[in-house]
Design goal:
With about 1000 residues, the protein is mainly β. The protein is built from three helices and 85 strands. It is flat, with a radius of gyration of 55 Å.
Length: about 1000
């Protein structure tokens, strides 16, 4: 920054001014004129004058000229006038002769000024305004306007010209006006201003906003499924006020909507001839059902905007117009398809009305059961509700005829097993519209042929509110009807007179209210319970028994007339056998094949239905006892002995007659073979099932299907009824190490056990990877030891190839820095009376022991090894002696250990204490053989260890009988081992001091 002060600064500024005046004229002339208009004042009253002023620069020499001003008067067409420039500016007066907006702009060739808009109006003061909404009545809009000429009045009109003028008012001498609005019919913006009495030349003075009434928008679903699935949904728009003469519109937006899934009169723009991003549907009653609404987006939010209006709609891509009378919005989440998706053709049901209910079950890819690549493996659909109970399975579409008896809910439950063997349960609730009815407990308990009843029927709506204007009709063995419209009903209770039941047909109650809502009750009427029925067998065995026999008595007398028998079988199906005859002193009813356990309740009825009796039998499964394997487990890929027998569930006696035991695969989970005790394959039934008698001893070889996600299973069935199972589990292979060092010998122990935890002998185990390829055979303990020397880093996979589905351990081969010191173990007596002592030293190190020092003296090693065992003789001094052992491994890690031995010199024995041992003077000392050969045993007459030769060194321990006890260190199996033993052949050897 340069700062100029005093005369120097003045000189520079003067020079700049001079240079500016010397610029060529053409440079200045090329600068376009700019006009900036202002008006004073900006709001004018008709009949007054305002001045237009321009502060524009034309040129710096003060040239004079004329400018053209273009203006548009209120309600008129474009006109012009001129004004003379003086020193580059002008000021022009203009007289405003009437109300309205005036616009002014200077135009000189391509040079134009800003546009000035001026409102010419009379003095206006509105009264205080409130907030307004559609439906507001008797609204007075008043105010004061001064100077309004004759022929003009105050007018209120909607901004939509199609709606037009709503009201008008003349102005009093004092300038007051009051416009009366009987009711606001349309929402939107209204303009209040002046106009001629014929409505022309309207000038807006004020805007008034009228809000729409609220529409409460609801849906019968809380979420929708995206991704082209069919959604059956009903939208309801409930107004807050009574409306008539108009049309409802439902506008959908927020996600892509399949164009073919929206039916009715629609408004919207189709994109790519496929879908809407926004679409509106007209509707007459405010309830819109879209039974196949497809949303192409998989996730998002569907916005539903409902509105109501009387006029026709001018849509632009589904946008609602601003004059809607009512307006409401609902947002519904759109979720991705689940593994199992359930849809129905109806969203509600009516009580006591027969309806076809269609249920659609689709997988995540919009496929149904049976479609190619469908993930639905097994599907069961159950429909339950008031007097509704139906089910079906494994179809592309499920159709049920339902007639719910009362208001409430019908529940659709879907249990689907997928191809990955997972199971999904989905429920969908469908509301039932109608009434609820109940029959008093005393009547229900007394619905017996010939009994006198006084029925009391209570009727409510779905929420429990009493209904007093319904018509209740009873038919069957009792007849009667009560109308709540002609009878005074209190708390919804309809009281019928007493009468006897004349038949055993159903007692039926039908209810209907004036709106057509219904309910139904149905009760059976029993005959007299006078029969005593006794079955031959109280318990039946499934798979063996196929019929039930019984006798009937009425009092003390036997019944022999034909009877009807009713029961519900074990599958829940009602069965009736009519005209059962009395034969060979009893009645017999065939039950067919009994395949499950349960209880069957029988009702024996006289053919006229007026007498009956009941009895019950239990059905039990036969018992199959798997004697082996005791834990019910088969080892994968290994033959195992299986034995079993079948027993009665009644008295636990063994059953052999008419018995077939079948071994079969569950759900394609495994393959298997069954062999007799001689190794012969048994006859197969269908490739995956084998039949045997019972009892049986067989051998089973099973292998789980590798693609099956769970343990394989073999089912044991008796006469076709599954009563037990065997589980196929893999053998277990383990290793004692998960890491080994590259370039080093590593001892790895693998262990193979069956699924019961028992070792597997003579099995092949392999190690492969990182330059390792080894094969071994397990011993009796299921173990095999490998020396593993990997050449590179990586994984070594351990496998037992003969055993399928086994978990294969992995060993990581990596470079290992050995920082572990050798482990030293010292065995030496704490005290001794001998001048020398043999010290047992054991050193271990996985990196191999390479060096050993005892009291600083090097001990020779044959080669580096994992374990070193040495016996070192140490000469002692009297008192405490510290023996120090140092060991080093191949990596240079050094360990030190010490042991203390206290030497107390013995008192020499008297001459008469000589034991007779000619070598007693050598006791505790090192000696050597001076004969050519002799033998060493562990103990007298014990195992021969080694043949000793002349010059072999040992420590003499004394004489025991004819045996001379010694301690020697012998090379055995890769290292020195120390043994205490005995040398014999006393006539062929001699000992001398070493």
């Amino acid at each position: 920054m340069i700062r100029l002060k005093g005369k120097k600064a003045i000189a520079i500024i003067t020079m700049a001014t001079f240079l500016l005046t010397m610029l060529p004229a053409f440079v200045l002339a090329s600068t376009p004129a700019k006009y900036v208009l202002t008006l004073s004042p900006t709001t004018v009253r008709p009949g007054t004058t305002a001045t237009l002023v321009s502060g524009s620069v034309v040129d710096i020499y003060g040239n004079k000229g004329v400018v053209t001003i273009v203006y548009t008067p209120a309600g008129g067409t474009e006109e012009t006038f001129t004004s003379t420039l003086a020193d580059g500016t002008f000021a022009k007066n203009y007289v405003f002769d009437k109300e309205g907006d005036y616009t002014f702009q200077v135009k000189e060739g391509t040079d134009v000024s800003n546009v000035v808009t001026v409102l010419s109006r009379y003095d206006y003061t509105p009264d205080a305004r409130g907030s307004y909404k559609v439906g507001d009545t008797n609204v007075i809009l008043g105010g004061t306007i001064k100077g309004l000429p004759a022929g003009r009045q105050m007018v209120l009109k909607h901004e939509n010209d199609a709606i037009g003028v709503i009201g008008n008012s003349a102005v009093t001498d004092t300038g007051r006006f009051a416009i009366s609005v009987p009711v606001f019919t349309y929402a939107g913006t209204y303009a209040l201003g002046t106009a001629n009495t014929d409505g022309t030349n309207f000038v807006k003075y004020e805007e008034i906003t009228v809000a729409p009434q609220t529409l409460a928008v609801t849906a019968d679903k809380t979420a929708l499924t995206g991704g082209s699935f069919d959604n059956n949904i009903t939208f309801t728009a409930k107004p807050a006020v009574t409306v008539s003469g108009g049309t409802y519109y439902f506008e959908l937006s927020g996600v892509k909507i399949d164009k073919n899934s929206v039916t009715g009169t629609t408004y919207g723009t189709v994109i790519d001839n496929t879908y809407y991003t926004k679409v509106a549907v007209s509707d007459s009653d405010g309830v819109l059902n879209l039974s196949n609404l497809k949303l192409l987006d998989t996730i998002g939010t569907l916005t539903v905007k409902a509105y109501y209006q009387k006029d026709s709609v001018d849509f632009a891509n589904g946008l609602y117009t601003e004059n809607a009378e009512l307006l409401g919005t609902l947002n519904i989440p759109v979720n991705p398809a689940a593994k199992v998706n359930v849809f129905t053709n109806v969203t509600s049901l009516a009580a006591d009305t027969t309806t076809t209910l269609a249920v659609y079950v689709k997988d995540v890819n919009n496929k149904v059961y049976g479609d190619a690549n469908s993930t639905l493996k097994d599907v069961k659909v159950t429909v339950t509700g008031p007097d509704v109970n139906a089910s079906d399975s494994n179809k592309a579409e499920y159709s049920f005829t339902v007639n719910p008896s009362q208001a409430g809910d019908v529940t659709v439950t879907v249990v689907a097993t997928l191809t990955d063997n997972t199971q999904e349960t989905k429920t969908l609730t469908i509301p039932v519209d109608g009434l609820k009815a109940s029959l008093d407990a005393a009547t229900v308990a007394n619905l017996v042929y010939g009994a006198t009843v006084s029925p009391k029927v209570t009727v409510t709506d779905k929420n429990g509110t009493p209904i007093n204007n319904a018509t209740v009709t009873i038919s069957g063995p009792y007849t009667g009807s009560i109308s709540g419209q002609t009878t005074n009903i209190v708390n919804g209770q309809y009281n019928f007179s007493a009468a006897a039941l004349t038949d055993v047909t159903n007692f039926v109650v039908n209810v209907v209210d004036p709106s057509g809502k219904k309910a139904r009750l149905t009760y059976p009427v029993l005959g007299s319970n006078v029969y005593t029925v006794t079955p031959d067998k109280a318990t039946l065995i499934a798979g063996y028994d196929t019929e039930v026999s019984f006798t009937v008595k009425e009092g003390a007398y036997g019944v022999t007339d034909n009877v009807n028998v009713a029961y519900t079988d074990l599958d829940g199906n009602s069965q009736t056998v009519n005209g059962v005859t009395y034969t060979n002193g009893k009645y017999t009813v065939s039950l067919g094949s009994l395949t499950k356990a349960g209880t069957i309740n029988f009702k024996v009825i006289s053919t006229d239905g007026k007498k009956y009796g009941t009895f019950t039998v239990n059905v039990k499964l036969p018992v199959i006892k798997v004697l082996a394997p005791a834990d019910g487990i088969l080892t994968d890929s290994q033959k195992e002995a299986v034995s079993y027998a079948v027993y009665s569930p009644i008295d636990n006696t063994e059953i052999t007659a008419n018995t077939t035991v079948t071994l079969s695969v569950y759900d394609n989970s495994a393959t298997f073979g069954v062999y007799d005790q001689s190794g012969n394959a048994l006859k197969t039934v269908d490739g995956s099932a084998y039949n045997t008698g019972a009892p049986a001893k067989v051998t089973v070889l099973a292998t789980k299907n590798a693609s099956y996600g769970y343990d394989g299973k073999l089912e044991l069935s008796v006469n076709g009824i599954k009563v037990s199972e065997l589980t196929v589990k893999p053998a277990v292979l383990t290793v004692n190490k998960t890491e080994v060092a590259v370039g080093s010998d590593n001892a790895v122990e693998a262990t193979l056990k069956d699924a019961h935890g028992n070792p597997i002998k003579d099995a092949t185990v392999t190690l492969n990877g990182s330059g390792v390829a080894l094969t071994g055979t397990t011993d009796a303990d299921g173990k095999v030891i490998f020396t593993v020397t990997p050449f590179a880093t990586g994984k070594i996979v351990v496998d037992a190839p003969a055993y399928a589905n086994i978990t294969k351990p992995e060993i990581t081969a990596k470079f290992v820095v050995d920082d572990k010191k050798p482990v030293i173990t010292i065995e030496a007596p704490a005290t001794t009376d001998k001048e020398t002592v043999d010290v047992n030293i054991k050193v271990t190190d996985e990196g191999k022991v390479a060096g050993l020092l005892v009291n600083g003296q090097r001990i020779e090693l044959v080669a580096p090894m994992v374990e070193v065992n040495k016996v070192v003789t140490v000469t002692l001094k009297e008192g405490k002696n510290t023996i120090t052992v140092e060991a080093a491994d191949v990596a240079g890690n050094i360990a030190t250990a010490t042991a203390d031995v206290t030497y107390t010199k013995p008192v020499p024995p008297a001459d008469n204490t000589n034991t007779g041992d000619k070598y007693s003077k050598f006791v505790g000392q090192m000696v050597k053989l001076t004969y050519s050969r002799t033998n060493l045993r562990l103990a007298p007459n014990g195992k021969l260890l080694v043949t000793l030769k002349t010059g072999y060194k040992m420590r003499y321990l004394g004489r025991e009988g004819v045996w001379n006890k010694v301690r020697v260190s012998i090379w055995m199996k890769g290292g020195y081992k120390t043994y205490t033993g005995y040398i014999y052949d006393p006539y062929f050897w001699a000992l001398t001091k070493a």
